[in-house]
Design brief:
- With about 260 residues, the chain is mainly alpha-helical.
- It has one domain.
- Helices cover about 75% and strands about 5% of the residues.
- It has a two-stranded antiparallel sheet with strand order 1-2.
- Strand 1 and strand 2 form a beta hairpin.
- The longest helix has 26 residues, at about 190-215.
């Protein structure tokens, strides 16, 4: 790949990224209903994209149902969360005629990840959501530039042909740096460094999982909603994986100063 070709998607990716950062920062700062509403919209968009990837004829209905399900899950007692989200996914899967299993896995993972994001903001607080987002963003940026600049052996070419070991490790290093930065503000100390690397790895696995589904369905992007990034799933796949691990860390008391 020539030097120029490596960076052809940088400008639209950067511009879209700035918009996402501004909108996301405002919503995260506000928290409460505005952030919950954003999470529900993201959930609906993700299931709409997933249904379209699997050629479901009623993708829009599935997306609306998913958004409503996440809203209910964030509002109702915790014991109701899994039944509500599973019900929405099962209903959405009824119109998927082939490879229903992968669709179910992608859909429930997406909704659980969105629920995790909403729960972290509501229960763990602003500082931990900022930490989570910083880990994912810095890991992604470090991995992108290291992978494009250094190249090298592929991390998991069967499912993610563009992801390299150099980019993956750069992401871990970036995440460790985020852990150091947030160690004092959170009161977590150096314990946050390995936790940040763990969350980074979870995000990378989320990226690879979505890539595997796209390869299964023979599509390049989940949609074209976000210029330079593809679809909502393409942009937030890592966040879903990271949020799931983040909310587990919070639930079991491994986010110091929160539990």
């Amino acid at each position: 790949m020539s030097g120029a070709a490596r960076w052809t998607d940088l400008w639209p990716r950067l511009m879209s990224g700035i918009v996402l950062i501004v909108v996301g920062a405002v919503e995260i700062w506000l928290g409460g209903v505005p952030f919950a509403a954003l999470v529900c919209v993201l959930a609906g968009a993700m299931i709409w994209e997933a249904a379209r990837m699997f050629a479901a004829p009623d993708a829009l209905r599935s997306g609306v149902l998913a958004a409503v399900a996440v809203a209910l899950a964030l509002w109702l007692p915790g014991i109701m969360v899994l039944p509500i989200l599973l019900a929405a996914v099962v209903v959405a899967s009824r119109s998927v005629e082939r490879e229903r299993g992968p669709f179910l896995a992608l859909a429930i993972w997406s909704l659980l990840g969105c629920y995790a994001m909403g729960t972290l903001r509501a229960e763990a607080g602003l500082i931990w959501v900022l930490w989570l987002v910083a880990v994912v963003v810095i890991s992604d940026v470090a991995g992108y530039f290291a992978g494009r600049s250094l190249g090298g052996p592929k991390f998991w070419p069967r499912y993610s042909p563009k992801k390299t070991w150099s980019g993956t490790i750069a992401g871990w290093i970036g995440a460790a740096g985020v852990g150091l930065i947030f160690a004092a503000p959170t009161g977590a100390g150096l314990a946050l460094v390995p936790l940040s690397v763990l969350v980074s790895f979870a995000g990378q696995m989320g990226d690879i999982a979505e890539s595997a589904v796209k390869r299964l369905r023979g599509v390049k992007d989940s949609s074209n909603l976000i210029p330079g990034h593809g679809g909502v799933l393409d942009r937030f796949d890592a966040m879903l994986g990271a949020a799931l691990v983040g909310v587990i860390l919070w639930a079991v008391g491994l986010l110091p100063g929160v539990a």
